[in-house]
Amino acid sequence: PFLPQERQARVALLKDLLTRADVTVSEKFRRVLEAYQVEVDYGRNIEAYRGQENNVSYDFLRVGRLALYRISNDGEQAWLWHKGKNNWVALDSGYMRDLRQALKVAQQTAAPELMILPMATPASLKETSGDAS
């Protein structure tokens, strides 16, 4: 659920472009491939951005397509997006130092280093999806 407005705008522009007769097929193909490339690149990098959720401003930290964190502006609380619950899960305050450091790395104000961050595991995802047996 990261950068939803930006990604929805990209899809809307593509849908509009694909219906236009004045645009060549090769240009349409190029723009579709370009959009796919942007989506692929999301899985290869770390990004920090400020966004709003429920009219509250947060810092967001995206680590590839593996994890999305939401950090309060005062740096005292953090949440991890849990795909299985389709909701934010509060993180223990013991992770705050590591999350703040990862945020600095993503903002390119600190040197890259090994990050030790909490992740939603396949077991925790199965817990919340119910029994499929």
Which helices and strands, and how do they pair?
Layout: H1 4-19, H2 25-42, E1 46-53, E2 56-63, E3 67-72, E4 78-82, E5 87-90, H3 96-106, H4 122-129
Antiparallel strand pairs: 1-2, 2-3, 3-4, 4-5
Helix pairs in contact: 1-2
Overview features:
alpha+beta; 5 strands; 4 helices; 5-stranded antiparallel beta sheet; 133 residues; 2 domains
In short:
It contains 4 helices and 5 strands. It is α+β, with helices and mostly antiparallel strands and 133 residues long.
Describe the structure.
The chain is of the alpha+beta class and 133 residues long. It has two domains: 4-42; 46-120, no CATH class. It contains four helices and five strands. The protein has helices at 4-19, 25-42, 96-106, 122-129; strands at residues 46-53, 56-63, 67-72, 78-82, 87-90. A five-stranded antiparallel sheet has the order 1-2-3-4-5, covered by helices on one side. Helix 1 runs antiparallel to helix 2 (25-42). The protein is elongated and about 55 Å long. It starts with a helix and ends with a helix. 11% of the residues are buried.
Tally the helices: what do you get? 4
* Uncertain ranges: 128-133
**Percentage of residues in helical conformation:** 25-40%
Query: What is the chain-wise order of helices and strands?
Result: HHEEEEEHH
